[in-house]
Amino acid sequence: MRLIRLLKNDLAKETTGWVEKHIISPEQAVQICAQYGIDYHNQNKRSYGYFILTILGFLFVGLALITIIGANWEDIPRPIRMIGLISLTLLVNLIGIHKVSQAENTAAIAIFFLGGLFYGASIMLIAQIYHIGEHYPDGVFWWAIGVFPLALLMRSSLLMLLATVLGYIWFFTESSLHFYPTLFPVFLIALAWHCFSVKQSSVLFLMLISGACFWLEYSLSWLLGDFQHFNAGIENIFAAIFIFIFLYGFATRLVGATNTTLKDYGTLLGVWVLRFTLLSLFIFSFREPWNGILSAEWQSPIVTLALAAFLAISAIWMTHRSKKALSIIVAVSLLFVAILLLVIFYPDMISYSNTIPYRESMGYRLSTPLQLIDNIVLVLSGIGLIVQGVHHSITHYFFLGIITILLTAMLRYIDLIGNYIGAALLFAVFAAILLSAARFWKSHHLKQKAVTS
Question: Do residues 308 and 343 lie in contact, with contact meaning Cβ atoms separated by under 8 Å?
Answer without folding.
Answer: no
